[in-house]
Write a structure and sequence with these properties.
36% of the residues lie in helices and 23% in strands. It is an alpha+beta fold. The chain has an eight-stranded mixed beta sheet with strand order 1-10-9-4-5-6-2-3, sandwiched between helices. Helix 2 packs across helix 6 (193-204). Belongs to the SCO1/2 family.
């Protein structure tokens, strides 16, 4: 039981640290982000991502190159999740339906499992396909998952349970990746489909579909 509590505490601490970093960065910047957003919380400057290699449920690879050319909302969870993951994907499904077809072409939702042992490609395809066949599902080994989640400011852990199985704890925020393949901020729970859709509409309406840095600077 203590292991589960410790893992939960770690996730809460990581979430608080990420939230404080967003707030502090905005304060240091001296001005709020120029965009009028309803749910997204933006970093003062885009963050570059590390190299990673994951396997999609359709047999293709998922690498940093696949997060370029469109806006990506990525959520990390697992298919046996009792509440957070299905609720989140259901909300994303609603937000997806609120986008016009021309807007949806510039956005995609990715579900990345941090439970690769149980979440086989077949299981991932069935699970994510229940919410939307347009959503991308992927997973990978712990080396890639840990490298990526740490870079994104997320955390996950697995703890053995009394029945000999294990439970998974994970961050509940969704990351926002711009068309240049950089993390620009987060959607944090509680998620609201109308607000997420409104922010995505704002993002895709930017000149060049995101080729212009939204903070007026480019650290690349």
């Amino acid at each position: 039981m203590s292991g589960r509590i410790s893992a939960t505490v770690l996730i809460l601490v990581a979430a608080f640290a990420a939230a404080f970093g967003l707030w502090f960065g905005a304060r240091m910047l001296g001005a709020p982000a120029p965009l009028k957003l309803q749910a997204a919380v933006l970093y003062p400057a885009p963050r570059a991502l590390p190299d990673f290699h994951l396997a999609r449920s359709d047999g293709q690879s998922l690498t940093p190159a696949d997060w370029k050319g469109h806006w990506t909302v990525a959520f990390f969870g697992y298919t046996n999740c009792p509440d957070v993951c299905p609720t989140t994907l259901a909300t994303f499904k609603q937000a997806w339906k609120l986008l016009e077809p021309v807007e949806a072409e510039k956005v995609r939702f990715d579900f990345i499992s941090v439970d690769p042992t149980r979440d086989t490609p077949e299981q991932l395809a069935r699970y994510v396909g229940f919410f939307s066949k347009d959503f991308v599902a992927a997973t990978g080994d712990d080396e890639n998952l840990t490298r990526l989640t740490r870079a994104l400011g997320l955390i996950y852990s697995r703890e053995k349970t009394d029945n000999g199985n294990y439970a998974v704890d994970h961050s509940a925020s969704a990351v926002i990746i711009d068309p240049q393949g950089r993390q620009i901020g987060l959607f944090r729970p509680p998620f609201e489909a109308t607000k997420i859709a409104a922010d995505l509409k704002t993002f895709v309406s930017l000149p060049g579909a995101g080729s212009r840095p939204i903070h007026g600077r480019d650290d690349d």
